[in-house]
């Protein structure tokens, strides 16, 4: 039986699906990338795939390992990963997306009668490629990603990024939700402890009423507030350490040693607490070094 392959249809289908796969990968990987780079990456993948159908020396990229290698090239073009680890992460997300997308399309083919099984094989009705199936698959994934993005961030992604911490001082225990920040490598030069940075608002109960009133009633400079705390608060044994984070190149951070610092039920004795006057946006109370989870 002679089968006619229409090059323009094959190209458009591959381009559209490649664009969708790369776009979903960018969304799931929280990678901001321009539509132009998505377009160029999809164009490269589609042209090379179609070239493999026509030119024998490029046919390697149409199947198996060659196809996966081709997708990896597309990842490099679109995302420009800085490390091999980052490239592999995008590659894995892209492969999962491609398999899921292909599964949805196959299910729609069977549901609409465009594909059926005979004995142990699968038969397509050639010449009736349903554009509706392609558009329906794309719309399905677009809606799924839009609806499921926030849920995934809250229940899957963020669950790995946050952890529960309990700070104890002066007999007061305060539960906190801390963001595991790989960029937080701050150490107390006096004790050598790792420093967990916590918002003042989250641990205000540890401070006197005078300090709390000063903080909330005045639009104070952070350093002025620290000076006031050092003069007024005598029960926390606080001191200042230099830092170069929290949006500043250089600054001072108010630090104290808690009586207890518990991470996921494990007590840590080598942790100091830094007091940050600003707010953390995103539903967490402070920053925690991943070193403290070991």
Task: Walk me through this protein's architecture.
The chain has 294 residues and is of the alpha+beta class. The chain has seven helices and eleven strands. It has helices at residues 7-28, 35-54, 64-79, 84-112, 131-161, 209-217, 222-232, and strands spanning 115-118, 121-124, 162-169, 172-180, 194-199, 239-243, 251-256, 260-263, 266-268, 271-276, 286-288. The strands form two sheets. It has a nine-stranded mixed beta sheet with strand order 6-7-10-5-11-4-3-8-9. A two-stranded antiparallel ribbon has the order 1-2. α6 (209-217) packs antiparallel against α7. It is elongated, with a radius of gyration of 28 Å. The model is unreliable at 106-129 and 154-159 (pLDDT under 50).
Primary descriptors:
294 residues; alpha+beta; 7 helices; elongated; nine-stranded mixed sheet; single chain
């Amino acid at each position: 039986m002679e089968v006619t392959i229409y090059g323009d249809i094959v190209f458009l289908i591959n381009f559209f699906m490649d664009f969708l796969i790369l776009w979903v990968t960018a969304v799931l990987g929280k990678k901001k990338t321009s539509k132009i780079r998505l377009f160029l990456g999809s164009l490269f993948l589609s042209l090379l795939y179609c070239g493999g159908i026509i030119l024998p020396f490029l046919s390697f990229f149409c199947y198996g390992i060659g196809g996966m290698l081709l997708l990896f090239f597309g990842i490099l073009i679109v995302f420009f990963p800085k490390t091999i680890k980052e490239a592999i992460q995008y590659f894995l997300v892209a492969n999962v997306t491609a398999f899921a997308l292909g599964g949805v399309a196959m299910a729609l083919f069977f549901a609409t009668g465009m594909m059926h099984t005979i004995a142990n094989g699968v038969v397509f009705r050639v010449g009736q490629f349903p554009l509706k199936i392609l558009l329906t698959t794309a719309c399905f994934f677009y809606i799924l990603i839009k609806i499921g993005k926030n849920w995934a961030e809250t229940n899957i992604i963020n669950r790995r990024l946050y952890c529960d911490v309990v700070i104890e001082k002066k007999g007061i225990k305060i539960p906190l939700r801390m963001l595991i920040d790989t960029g937080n490598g701050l150490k107390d030069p006096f004790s050598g402890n790792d420093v967990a940075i916590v918002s003042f608002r989250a641990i205000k109960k540890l401070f006197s009423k005078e300090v709390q009133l000063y903080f909330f009633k005045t639009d104070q400079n952070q350093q002025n507030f620290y000076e006031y705390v050092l003069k007024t608060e005598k029960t926390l044994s606080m001191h200042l350490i230099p830092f170069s984070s929290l949006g500043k190149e250089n600054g001072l951070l108010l630090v104290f040693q808690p009586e207890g610092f518990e991470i996921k039920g494990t007590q840590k004795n080598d942790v100091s607490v830094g007091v940050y006057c600003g707010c953390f946006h995103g539903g967490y109370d402070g920053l925690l070094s991943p070193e403290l989870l070991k």
